[in-house]
Amino acid sequence: MCKFFGLSRAAYYAWDKRSKAPDPDQERMQLVKEAWLKSRKSYGYRRITIALQQKGHMINHKAVLRLMQKLSIRSVARKRKLYTKVTQLDTYHRYDNILDRDFTATRPNEKWGTDISYVMTLRGWAYLSTIKDLFDGFIVAHLLRKDLSTSLVTGTINLAVHKEKVTNEDKVLIHSDQGLQYTSEAYFSLTKKYNMTQSMSRRGNCWDNAPMENFFGHFKEEALRQYPIPTFKDAKEIVDGYIDFYNHERIQLKTKQTPYQTRCLFR
């Protein structure tokens, strides 16, 4: 056979020895795969590198990228959203865009973003109302219900105020889009009760509420996309599980920490 392929016997035995030797990357490949699976397959090579380095493993991003390619694994890719212009809405209360895309905050509970997203279930749509703290990206409150009502929004605010022990002295700025629930009298009265400053995106401009769009994008791609259409009960478990993961385990590239870690450092 060696003569037929024009190889020396020594070359054949060297190849045979190498092929039987254990893969030197095996241990690190296992670490990379475990970090990827723990992230719900959402981490790319940058976040996996941070996660491994925080655990004391000496590995750089180039090695992680090579090992991911060797394992044929990759992060969940997010689909681009097409820009759509909404029609004029008849609203009861309208607010200025006070936030004006200034998504930075100096302390927790200084600026909140809020929005509603749709979740398909076997019994039709469910509606997820969420409030995100712009200081650290922490999801301070969320509610999933079968009805798209004003009480869904006010209930989320009450839950956030209770959990975060927010007082009128905190003067939280809360930013939303121009959805009917956010222009209602109930929303106006509740935010005034808690001495909140209302801010609202410009009509048809999703970028004005980019932090919430960003969160819902990650949620749908990293959680919902991995499951068949769930029952409402299963959807609630998926939502609760992902938000707990997002707050306490998912590393942010900007801070190299989870939202919870950033929040704890401030306090």
Keywords:
alpha/beta; five-stranded mixed beta sheet; 5 strands; elongated
Q: Strand arrangement, largest sheet?
A: 3-2-1-4-5
Number of helices: 10
Number of strands: 5
Radius of gyration from CA coordinates: 24 Å
Assembly state (oligomeric): single chain
Question: Helix fraction?
Answer: 40-55%
Low-confidence stretches: 82-91
The average pLDDT value, as a whole number, equals 89
Secondary-structure element string: HHHHHEEEHEHEHHH
Percent strand equals 5-15%
> Main sheet?
5 strands, mixed
Structural class category = alpha/beta
Distance between the termini: 72 Å
Choose one word for the global shape.
elongated
Please write out the topology.
Layout: H1 2-5, H2 9-20, H3 26-38, H4 45-54, H5 61-71, E1 111-121, E2 124-133, E3 139-145, H6 150-164, E4 173-176, H7 185-193, E5 197-200, H8 210-222, H9 232-248, H10 259-266
Parallel strand pairs: 1-4, 4-5
Antiparallel strand pairs: 1-2, 2-3
Helix pairs in contact: 3-4, 3-5, 4-5, 6-7
